[in-house]
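If you are new to this repository, start here. Below is one unmodified record pulled from the training split, so you can see the exact layout before writing a loader.
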Amino acid sequence: MSVTSIVLVHAHALFREGLRHHLNAESDFRITGEASNGQQAIQLVDYTDPDLVLMEVDLPGINGLEVSRAIKRTHPHVGIVLFSADMDGDHVVKAIRAGVAAYLPRNIGWEALHEVLTEVRRGGYPINDLVLSLPDVASQVIEAFRLMVVDEDTQSIYSPLSPRELEVLELVAAGRTNKEIAFQLDISNQTVKNHVSSILRKLAVNDRTQAVVYAMRRGWIKVVLPGE
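And here is the target side for that same chain:
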């Protein structure tokens, strides 16, 4: 993989300096610009067209979520990584809608951040792993998408998924692991993996959470949260 170009966006120069120090020490990353507010960030991305944007949510003026939406409209290929002190499910929902690839706590360690940046550069969306790994966040995110009005232009009675694949996807949406799905449906763990792979291929999505959101917005599956 070629060198990854990065734009840093944070109101505090000291925070940017810390990131710059670590990124400059890595041969696979190159900082192409820095901004201290949202408007500067949008202009800088237009000018430099980076691979990644590392940005704080709480920016003066235009916040990081609004900046993310603006960037993804004109530069859909840019991977956006947001830092936030608030890992609330509502914020994660907004980040997903804005096209953010990763949503991270401010106190994340450098090694973990390096892994996230590498994954995002490869086209991954670690934000979806966050949804599935934190039960409280997962329930908020799933509930928010479940209550969303289905878009008229995307609503379709037809689903390319088989009844069994839809059954598996509903269990994925409910937070079940492959092992739990296999037990509930009385099938092997490998069969579950095969179904999940088929679902991702048919829907042309990268991971399980994207598949769940895709199917929920089209009314193909319904999710019953624990305790309901």
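Two things worth knowing about this chain: The longest strand covers residues 29-35. The mean pLDDT is 82.
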